[in-house]
Structures are given as C-alpha cells and as structure tokens.
Design a protein that fits this description.
alpha+beta; globular
Length: 183
Amino acid sequence: ENATRFPNPNRKKLQKKAKITDQKISTLFCNGLKKYNSDISFLLDMRRPSGRNRFFVVDLTTDRILDQGLVAHGSGSETGKKNHLQFSNTDNSHATSLGSYAIGSSYNGKFGKAYKLYGLDSSNSNAYARDIVLHKYDRMPYDEQVDPVCLSEGCPMVNVEFYKRLQDLIDSSKKQIILHIYY
C-alpha cells in the first residue's frame, strides 16, 4: 500500500541520490565479517520536506522500496529558511547528523522502546555519545501533510504505527541494519 505512493527506484538511483558509493556498500555489506544486513537498509532523505515521507525501507536484493513514512529531524537543524537544514555532530546541538548508522540494541526510555544508533562516519561519530536513537513519538503524524512535522533533539523520530513495522524488521534481523541519513 505505501509503496504505491512513491516510485520504486533501483538501487543505483538510490545510491546516487544518497551519495552512497559502491565502495561504501562494499565496506558496509561485503566486508569479511558480513556484520550488517545486506538485504534491507533504511534511507532518510532530508532534502524532502518533513511533512512528506522521507524515511524509506529499501530491499537491496530487489531494489524496491518496501515501506515509507514521515521522520522528524533535530530542532538544531532548523535554519529559518524554508526547506534548508544544517547538520551537526556536536553534543547538545540538537541537530541531525548525516551519514551511515548501525542500528544497535534496544532499551526502554522516555519514548518507550528505542534503538541505539552507532555513527559509522566522521559526520556522525558522536551519535552514541549524543544519545541519538531511533524512536517513536505519539504526536508524530502518520499521513503526509503540507505542514512540517514536530522536531526532535537530533534523533530520527517516527510515528508509532510506522515504528511498529520498523521494530518488526529490526528485531527479526539476524544482523544489524544500516540507516543512512543524507541531504
């Protein structure tokens, strides 16, 4: 149902849009340890307005978008200019950080179950120390809208219903899933 509202681009197009090189894919998914899930990845396109779906669940084996939803960005990423964001890896910036993240273990916090995120790039290397996590928020809208959605403190924050579907994927994955935030 969700996949019909957005065209299913192939992986090469997604890679180009997200600036993910074959070398980076090789490093993340094809290294000797094969530590990460090479079938599923989460792509967050921060160029899209926050009221539009910009969190995409991508099946890397079929090059299809399996699911999509709204995702908040950090309040510190706001610049006051329409559709223009800034990004930071600095503690207490409340900004979103660009780059690839490994989705780690879950814990129960003020938003319920959340997943720790480990930054894999210099642009997000402080994610764990900054307590940047993937979590749900009950006031986050489900449907696309004209108005911007609420802001986080730098975390990718999604609607409760969409989060349940993400949680099922994360919890059933034998390997860590990569989440990539790009602009």
